[in-house]
Amino acid sequence: MTVSAPVAAPASPVPTMLKATKTLGEFRRDPLSLFTRIAALPQGMARTRLLGKELIFITHPDHVHHVVRNNYQNYDKNAPMYKNARPFLGNGLTVAVGGEEWLHRRRLIQPAFHKNNVHVVSDVAVRCLADVLAERERLAASGEPFDVSAEMTRLTMRITSQTFFGVDLLRDSTDMARRLDEITAFATRYLSRPFPPLWVPTPAIRRFHADIDYVNEFVADVVRTRHADPAEHSDLLNLLVGAVDDESGQGLSRQQLRDELIGFFFAGHETLAHSMSWCWYLVARDPRVDGELAAELDRVLGGRTPALEDVPNLTYTRMIIDEAMRLYPALWVNMRRALGEDVIGGHRIPAGAIVSWSPYAGNRFPEVWDDADRFRPERFSPEQSAKRSRHAATPFGEGPRACIGSGFATVEATLILATLAHRHRLQLVTDKPAEPAVGFTIYPKDGVWATLSRRDG
After folding, report:
1. Does the model's pTM come out above 0.90?
2. H or E element in which residue 355 lies
3. 104: which residues sit within 8 A by CB, 6+ positions away?
4. Which of 7, 24, 110, 349 has the fewest CB atoms within 10 Å of its CB?
5. What span, in angstroms and rounded, lies between the C-alpha atoms of 41 and 172?
6. CB–CB of 36/364 below 8 Å?
7. How far apart are CA 124 and CA 3, in angstroms?
8. What is the dihedral of CA 386, 392, 397, 400, to 10 degrees?
9. What is the DSSP letter of 434?
């Protein structure tokens, strides 16, 4: 294994050593504060030992870039967070260890997410957003408070389920929707404290296994049905079913399709819902940004509903989304296992070490971002972006394991914000700052409660 050169000169002989039991407790109670504290240490690095394993914490974007891009071949996902997530997400691209089998599957699936297919998502999003607009008209007329976070969760579930399963779960399969919600809630609790093991038959774990069995059978039935009659559909499931390797002529097995569909569903539903919740919260707290957004939407759309062809022209809308994802990145923690020795920031990383980082802390690194905790979309203007490294903030990851659906997610997020913000203004019901909580993603702990008023009212 070739070891890349040090990313930066060492500031100390070794990263700061943290006490294992205290660090583990803090990781469970308040991991965002833990990573924020580590970011303030020399080079933003620390280490500890857990169960005989070296655990290295990094926070500087350059160090993360080294792991996921410059020397990515030395790192895989045979790490605790992915081992704990596989019972929920299967063994799809998102959580698979890596290696040749993973690479082969990535290349097989990649064409389905080509930019030429983004209309598959945008068409569904536009239809679903029409229903949300109608409901928002009612809420604006009544002045009734509502939870924007719950609204975004329902919306992204509808869009994602139609895109990947060809079914609107909230309308056509409410039992499946309920079980997916139960799995998400259980996973949020379990991943923060993965005990007892999932083979222990507690009532909660038995319910979880029953839900997983139901979801597996639902997805398997969808896949069987689609294999039998693929011609009449134009969704991403059809593209995945039809994906074939040019050399072998083989496609994805039914188990592989199941794993990918579950992984894509959670990535496209849970993560985007919470990203959009933070987006609405931040815009509602900043009248200046809300005004700039409204002005762009009036200028580009002229009163009509946005469509896919408008997305490239909604530059300020996209800047808002990028800045919201910088402050509250959906994936708040990441891990890799070092296959061989490496050097990061001048420090030796032993083979077998687990390297962990939090985009939440890295995206606020003071050497990279001035006034880092402030919401300022102009940071992502072309002029400002050109002044800093491209890997300073990477909401969808970078390197070979970057999110395969990032382009689709960006289009969907832009259409959601533009469609709904063009018609209504959001007012938060409290001045109390939203508290971030962690599960699969970073989400507003108590939701985002607001009222609506019409822009032209």
Report:
1. yes
2. strand 354-357
3. 245
4. 110
5. 52
6. yes
7. 46
8. 70
9. P
